Every structure is written in structure tokens, then in C-alpha cells.
Amino acid sequence: MATESQRRHVHTRSIRVDAYARDDGLWDIEAVLVDTKSRDLQLASGLRAAGDPIHQMRLQVTVDRDLNVRDASAVTTWVPYPGHCNRIEPEYKRLIGLNLARDFRRDVRERLGGVRGCSHLSELAGALPTAAIQGFAGEVKRDDPAQAERKPFQLDRCHALETTGPAVATFYPRWYRGAGPATGKPTSGSSDSEQGETR
User: Fold this and answer.
1) How far apart are CA 106 and CA 110, in angstroms?
2) Domain-embedded: residue 121
3) Whole-model pTM?
4) Structural domains of the chain, count
5) H runs (alpha helix) in the chain
6) Do residue 36 and residue 130 come from a single domain?
7) Running along the chain, 199 residues long, what does each successive block of 10 average in pLDDT?
8) Structural domain of 103
9) Quick one: three-class SS letters along 116-154?
10) Using only C-alpha atoms, what is the Rg of the chain?
11) Are 122 and 170 members of one domain?
């Protein structure tokens, strides 16, 4: 039997995302990233004491019920290169006009990838879509009749909710595209156009 390896804690990265329902019908989705070390760290910009953040950054977007980004802001409180890292904050206004449910991560890369943005803030942006969906769950009523005709956002976005799988057959039978119980053919009620929808 192999002996258990000894290990020493050196680093913690925490990411927290909160969703807030606003009185004006919009939503704020706020993501915070914090990096800390278990020992003092000598950065090029100076000594960072153990427990003091290497990075502490907040990215917030305001979205409507259709997940369109109406406003965006970034704040970098702790950074490795003060006065330099912080200068990118205004660029995250470029998230305005994107939609969290439609190609959001791709669009973030196009607008803010590489030297056009901050790798840590853009990483936070990647956490926003699914956090927003979780925030909406149980809060946003899809009472628009047109919404009932659209494939639920979460289908075909993870292995459990593939539209050919048993979970969809059980919980979302209308959108199930697997083999029918008797015919071996795809079930009725779903079309290629529905399969391609993301909302």
C-alpha cells in the first residue's frame, strides 16, 4: 500500500458570485476573486505579507430578464502591480451589450482577451452566465408565452441534460430527442431548429 504524501498549503484562490434582484426589475451579478499566500511573497513591486491578497478583484454586471448586459464595472483592490493592473478597469464596460446566454465567453475573449484585458477579471466573467441562471431559478417567472416555446437554457449544456439522455426524458419530455420507446426513432415535438436554440 502506497503511503500518503505529505503536503504543505501554499495558496488559496477563492471565487464568489452573488446575484441581487433590484427594485427596478434588473439584476446585479457580482463576482469576486481573491488570491492569498500562506507565506510572505516577494513580488517585483514589493513584499506581500502572508494572508494579504495578491489579487482582490470584483466584476459586476447588471442584466435584464433576458440576460442582456445593461451595465458593467470592474474594481481591482489588490493587484501585483499597483497603478498598472488597475488601469484596465474601464475596459470592462465593453461587456455592455453582450448576452450571458449567447456566446458570452467567446465574446469576452474577442473583446478582452490577452493584453486587451486582465486574465483574472476575464476569468471572473466566465463564471457569470451559470451564476445568473442559478440566481434566476425560483425568482424569475417565465410567464411570457413565447418563453414556453423555447428550449430551456440548461439543456445540452452538460452531460446530464443532453437532450438524448434519460434525465431529459424524465424531467423535460417535450425536449427529449432520444429513441422513442417503441419505434427507435426520435420522439415527436422537437425539431432541428429547437435543438439549435440556446435559450
Assistant:
1) 6
2) yes
3) 0.76
4) 2
5) 104-112, 119-136, 145-148, 166-171, 192-196
6) yes
7) 83 97 97 97 94 97 96 97 96 98 95 96 95 86 60 81 92 84 42 34
8) 11-136
9) HCCHHHHHHHHHHHHHHHHHHCCCCCCCCHHHHCCCCCC
10) 22
11) no
